[in-house]
Amino acid sequence: MADRVKQIANQLNYPKGLLAGQVAIITGSGQGIGAECARLFANEGAKVVVSDIDGAKANEVAASINANGGNALAVPGDLLKDEYIKELVKKAAEFGGGKIHIIVNNAGFTYDGVIHKMTDKQWDVIVNLHGTVPFKIVREAAPFFRVKDGEPRNIVNISSTSGVHGNAGQSNYSFAKAGVVGLTKAIAKEWGPSFGVRANTIAFGHIETRLTAAKEAGAFVEVDGEKIALGIPQKQKAAGGPVPFLDIPLRRPGSATEAASAVLAIASPLSSYISGQTIMVTGGRNM
């Protein structure tokens, strides 16, 4: 125990950053919260593996990090393909000299529909991406986490207030994000006792990303050749009344940097005794 306390103290005072010497896989890090996580982690000394389905954006984020003195590797691909998950973990371990310390399961999007009109495809795509994919990544990376080398290991799974409270029009997303909470607790209980692995969930509220921008802005993702529009219809966004964000005590949405900062805080030794928890990052909403 004394050695572990000393190790944490050394990390907190380490001039090269809170995550110096650690290797982190961050999914969905070609843009938005994931890209900010990649940059913040690299700034704290981590070797970052940038995973995104958009190869151009993944390469751009990695190149930016490397140009600014960080250390990043882009490994683009489709997380819904099992062979890509194997490739991602393999390349991350090679990049890390045989080690992986952190996984941030952040990748995802919304594919909304009311329950009685939701298709099997809408359900399956979202449940697989937000629920099954994090499980498969963690399972594939198990040999690098179930180790006793004295180095920290932790997993941060990204959830949502939709997974905690539910949300109309998002039964698929709510279901998957609620499942992530249970998965996280299971990881913490299985891998914490013998290996010291920490696992936590961060549930975001209204964060400014393409998922909360006006739908009319035209952002989309493509699944099996079908373009899926992202965002919230302007009419719905305006339905909140004359006081913007009245249901958020801070009266504003969070930024991608603020969201990523919460991920960094939980992944860092500053949170070394936090495990199995769901941290709400909502500006006070739904408290």
Description of the structure:
α2 crosses α10, α4 runs parallel beside α5 and α5 runs parallel beside α8 (171-195). The protein has 287 residues and is of the alpha/beta class. The radius of gyration is 19 Å and the shape is globular. The mean pLDDT is 90. The chain has a seven-stranded parallel β-sheet with strand order 3-2-1-4-5-6-9, with helices on both faces. Strands 7-8 form a two-stranded antiparallel sheet. It has ten helices and nine strands. The protein has a single domain, classed as NAD(P)-binding Rossmann-like Domain (Rossmann fold), CATH 3.40.50. β7 and β8 form a beta hairpin.
Roughly what fraction of the amino acids lie in strands?
15-25%
Indicate the mean pLDDT: 90
The string of secondary-structure elements, in order, is HEHEHEHEHHEHHEEEHHE
The tally of domains stands at: 1
CATH level-two architecture = 3-Layer(aba) Sandwich
**Fourth CATH level, the homologous superfamily:** NAD(P)-binding Rossmann-like Domain
Low-confidence stretches: none
Q: Treating each run of at least 4 consecutive H or I residues as one helix, how many helices?
A: 10
The total beta strand count reads 9
Q: Determine the structural class based on helices, strands and strand pairing.
A: alpha/beta
Order the strands across the largest sheet as they lie in space: 3-2-1-4-5-6-9
Tell me the overall shape.
globular
What is the name of the CATH topology? Rossmann fold
Keywords: NADP, Oxidoreductase
EC number: 1.1.1.100
Family: Belongs to the short-chain dehydrogenases/reductases (SDR) family.
GO molecular function: 3-oxoacyl-[acyl-carrier-protein] reductase (NADPH) activity
